[in-house]
């Protein structure tokens, strides 16, 4: 009997991990675990430098692993982790973009020269704002170095999210990237109550969206008998007529994904969280999280639900229209620069959905290019916001930015570049991104959607130009904000963001070609 059991066990194939294919994720998660150990065992005075070096080293190493996988070609691409992870062109492009953006975000997080040698995070997160415990922590020079392993855990989730080949793995990745962000949003040193309110709102709404996503996973499993994206696609192709489980599951999974990209009507968290979170974390969320979330959304709709596109395309088109229009119109009345950029990001989510709806290789390539262009511009814009300061922290009310171009013409000029890119002005990355997604949508027959997108872009240009006029053609306010001298980290972030914005606008072809070469999913 034992021999028969042995033979039967020998017939069971061992799961293949393919460690080389998941090396970028392993590097980041491994560094995050080491960062937790650093917090536990290293003296406080040595933690900051160690965490910065560890985080940047891990992200650079992970990016090198992504480049190696991309250069290796098809031999290193395929399924990994027993089929739970798909390493293909879109995965590597999104992972590379997320890692570069995360490197710049970590530089912002590490900045300590802007506010008397302190960073943007609360000295003791568990202490009540204004309490004796908080004052004691500040006087002792305590620093919140836990933000670095938390950021690495979030980055690891972002790398896994667009690579997930089944819905359970995708859900795990969603939670791994979300939970650290909930904590990071509540750690602002200035305006503690606003920051904690933002974290609570993000957590509650994020929990609801995760529940919708998980319920949709259950319904799709009930329909297909599997959570693998390829199996769901095969079951969908073999179905004739209306299948309630398939449609309901698609809708609920879509709710969870659209929440993460900040699309209407699942956008309500975005302005409050962007305003209340520490600005380096806002930059990280606005850039890297959106890139990873769109990577996952593209995989679900292009792989698992490709055969159902005639059902989800009209719904997604309606969401795109609402997202573009509401984001552009509501941004017109915002008086806080971070809230204005939040509604701008909502409008850009609508433009990106226009590329998704094209359901073609050109649409996929255009969306990937737009994600890269948007990410660099967004990080640079929020990095500029960290430099305009009042005694109580960053000067985010628009009235405080009046006359900024006279006091600091270089900083105002760089911010103008980012605003023009958001508006889609020629010779900027924003123009090439919009042109690419709109062209793909027209080729896919979505001409009415493109018309709405062009009109929404025209409306959005108004509030971008309003800020430019305010900076250069308005009188400076008495006792106006100061422009902090940026440290090396912030300077590097702004410089690289501006350089990418110009290069992707003037010489976009290499990245467009790279995106086109990457625009093929493993089915």
Automatic annotation (TrEMBL):
It is found in: Cell membrane; Endomembrane system; Membrane. Its EC number is 7.1.1.-. Keywords: Cell membrane, Membrane, NAD, Oxidoreductase, Quinone, Translocase, Transmembrane, Transmembrane helix, Transport, Ubiquinone. It is a multi-pass membrane protein. Residues 164-458 form the NADH:quinone oxidoreductase/Mrp antiporter transmembrane domain. It is an enzyme of class 7 (translocase). The gene is nuoN. Pfam families: Proton_antipo_M (PF00361). One of its GO terms (biological process) is ATP synthesis coupled electron transport. One of its GO terms (molecular function) is NADH dehydrogenase (quinone) (non-electrogenic) activity. Its main location: membrane. The chain crosses the membrane at residues 22-42, 54-72, 92-110, 147-164, 170-188, 200-224, 244-269, 281-302, 314-333, 340-358, 364-388, 409-429, 435-465. NDH-1 is composed of 14 different subunits. Subunits NuoA, H, J, K, L, M, N constitute the membrane sector of the complex. This is NADH-quinone oxidoreductase subunit N. InterPro entries: NADH-Q_OxRdtase_suN/2 (IPR010096), ND/Mrp_TM (IPR001750). One of its GO terms (cellular component) is endomembrane system. NDH-1 shuttles electrons from NADH, via FMN and iron-sulfur (Fe-S) centers, to quinones in the respiratory chain. The immediate electron acceptor for the enzyme in this species is believed to be a menaquinone. Couples the redox reaction to proton translocation (for every two electrons transferred, four hydrogen ions are translocated across the cytoplasmic membrane), and thus conserves the redox energy in a proton gradient. It catalyses: a quinone + NADH + 5 H(+)(in) = a quinol + NAD(+) + 4 H(+)(out). Belongs to the complex I subunit 2 family.
